[in-house]
Amino acid sequence: MDFTQFVDSLTQQRFRHVAAFFIFVIIFIVYKYLSGFVSSSAKRLELEPHATNLLRLLLRVAAIFSTLLIMCFLYELPTTVFISGSALVGASLGFGSAQTINNIVAGFYVLISQPFKVNDYVKIGESEGQVEGISINYTSLYTPTFNLLKIPNTQVMNSKVLNLTHEGFIKYTFDVGFSHDLSPNVIMEKCVKPAIKEFHERHIDEVLRKPEAYFNMSDRLGISFLIRLFIPKGNAKQLYTLKPILLDLVSEKWYEISK
Questions:
Q1: Could you give the residue ranges of the DSSP H alpha helices within the chain?
Q2: CA spacing 20 to 30 A to 143: which of 102, 128, 173, 234?
Q3: How many CB atoms lie within 10 A of CB 129?
Q4: Which has more pLDDT, 170 or 205?
């Protein structure tokens, strides 16, 4: 049996199902190919990760829209189906999917307003991490616990956003506290600065810029300093690894001078 006879043997409805399946497969293959082409072209042209993420998102939306449009044409859906379907979808969106729609709107807002981009290190409310991706529904963060956290974009819109990425660096500041056993000047000169110097000499190829330290405050509980690390943008894992090392050096110097 040749292909023509095979097609003729199928009912019209079955033929539509088979055609729909193959069209879906073709669109999926084209989408995967174009997605890979976008990734390779972005690397070759040295596009920002945020721009690459946006292009992938637009490609995904185009693939979904094309699939729906071709399916509607293939099954020759009448206008009444569109009207009743629109009413049903509208009711579903209004009563059962409001949060999803809010996330989608918020996602486009985040992509357009750009409070942060892919590879930026940010604090969103109580969460922090490196932005790994921005989709229509979620923003993905690579957190200090080495996990991937997905934050709904509505939560992003309703939270304070602190972007710690500037001038190609993650400028990460953290607090280090001490007791009142020694004065702030002694702690700075004998503990904090020597620890920073030793840290920078060990890891000069990783941090590129020497960490900075500032006196923060003194109260009845103790004395605190702010230490600022400069990590190349997009290297959050490096930050998570190096910060404990610097804290260990500060602890060692503190133990030496407080004995």
A1: 3-9, 12-45, 49-74, 79-95, 98-113, 153-157, 184-187, 193-202, 204-207, 236-258
A2: 102
A3: 24
A4: 170
The one-letter code for the residue type at 171 is: K
Instruction: Convert 59-91 to b/e letters by CB count within 10 Å (16 or more is b).
Output: beeebeeebeebeeeeeeeeeeeeeeeeeeeee
The DSSP output letter for 203 is: S
Distance CA 86, CA 78 (A): 13
In whole angstroms, what is the distance from residue 130 CA to residue 143 CA?
A: 7
SS3 81: helix
> 244 versus 13: which is more confidently predicted?
244
Read off the pTM: 0.64
Which pair of structure tokens corresponds to residue 201?
């000499």
Residue the block writes with tokens 């710690």: 164
The structural domains of the chain, with segments of one domain joined by +, span 169-258
The span from the CA of 91 to the CA of 71, in Å, is: 23
> Would you mind telling me the total number of residues written for the chain in this entry?
259
User: 123: burial class by Cβ within 10 Å (0-12, 13-18, 19+)?
Assistant: middle
Does the domain formed by 169-258 have CATH 3.30.70.100?
A: yes
Rounded Cα–Cα distance for residues 212 and 196 (Å): 8
Q: Which two tokens stand for residue 17?
A: 């199902």
Per the CB < 8 A criterion, the answer to whether 184 and 173 are in contact is no
Q: Pairing state of beta strands 148-152 and 161-163?
A: unpaired
Q: In what order do the strands lie in the sheet with 165-166?
A: 165-166, 169-178, 222-232, 212-219
Report the pLDDT value the prediction gives residue 67, as an integer from 0 to 100. 77
Distances (CA, A) of 171 to 20, 91, 162, 166, 205: 52, 47, 11, 7, 16
